[in-house]
Amino acid sequence: MTDLPPHDWPELKPGWVWLCGAGPGDPGLLTLHGLNALRQADVIVYDALVGQGILDWAPQARHEYAGKRGGKPSAVQRDISLRLVELARQGKRVLRLKGGDPFVFGRGGEEAQTLVQHGVPIRVVPGITAGIAGLAYAGIPVTHRDVNQSVTFVTGHDATGAAPTALDWEGIAKGSQVIVIYMGMKHIGQIADRLIAAGRSPDEPVAVTTTATLDEQRTIETTLAACAADIAAAALEPPAIICVGRAALLRQALDWRAMEAGALPRDVDPLELRRPAEAG
Ligand code: SAH
């Protein structure tokens, strides 16, 4: 790889599949291992959330759209996995490119299992996940000493598309100061109700960021009680990352993308960041 920094870059060999995260959208958030893979692939099987900008870096490869969106039947997932097996058996250098990180709510583990079961050798290239980078691009640190010593990543719907019933919302509400919700737009009203019923304050800060890290990124600041109505009023569309917790307040100080547009954010008092009870 002449145009990558000197390093012993791995070779994507014929008959292998690399499962690779593309990051949340901004092409600059692809890893160097990801770029190394793009340069070598014969075929790239990619998902809806992978940006065109990244695919343009692999003009030599055939680009195959896997057309998968959350909530589709699992038969589609099975087809994708078997397609990867087929391409590998044809002796192709296969790059399976997924939004964010392949092992974070991305079914990368299922695809990897199918490949291994069929004797296809794999490599996994982690990516930057939307739940961390999306918040960072909104000016929200996913952990911050004045706010949280824990964070929970949850999915807003289960395999059937319903709000996840297997989750212990009460446990999460009590134990996790910051909750980062993927795929949460459809059921956010129900989720907020459950968190409030489990003891979270209706006034707790919530930030919702859509198409994070891209130019179209939009963020609203709201509260648990108001978030469903505010999302609807703002006509926000998925993909969105929803952050529940006082970390969302830090956006008022750290919205660095607004600084690019000339805004000067306000400072946030550390006491504001603690839960009212803790702040005394
Ligand atoms: N593997 C991915 C997540 C796939 S699930 C990752 O690690 O990021 C798809 C969900 O991810 C979306 O519904 C949304 O909740 C979130 N997501 C992915 N890209 C996003 C983006 N650019 N902005 C906001 N949310 C995003």
Structural class: alpha/beta
CATH homology group of the largest domain:
Tetrapyrrole methylase, C-terminal domain
Overall morphology? globular
At the first level of CATH, what is the class of the largest domain?
Answer: Alpha Beta
Number of strands: 10
Primary descriptors:
single chain, 280 residues, Methyltransferase, Cobalt-precorrin-4 Transmethylase, Domain 2, 2 domains, 12 helices, 18% strand, binds S-adenosyl-L-homocysteine
Can you walk me through this structure?
This protein has 280 residues and is an alpha/beta fold. It folds into two domains: 17-128, Cobalt-precorrin-4 Transmethylase, domain 1 (3-Layer(aba) Sandwich); 131-279, Tetrapyrrole methylase, C-terminal domain (Methyltransferase, Cobalt-precorrin-4 Transmethylase, Domain 2, 2-Layer Sandwich), CATH 3.30.950.10. It is built from twelve helices and ten strands. The protein has helices at residues 32-40, 52-55, 74-89, 108-117, 130-137, 169-175, 188-197, 227-233, 251-254, 256-260, 270-273, 276-279; strands spanning 17-21, 43-46, 62-65, 94-98, 122-125, 151-155, 178-182, 205-210, 218-223, 240-244. Strands 3-2-4-1-5 form a five-stranded parallel beta sheet, sandwiched between helices. β2, α2 and β3 form a beta-alpha-beta unit. α3 packs across α4 and α6 (169-175) crosses α7 (188-197). The protein is globular. The structure holds S-adenosyl-L-homocysteine. Residues 24-25, 49, 70, 98-101, 104-106, 129-130, 134, 182-183, 209-213, 238-241 line the site of S-adenosyl-L-homocysteine.
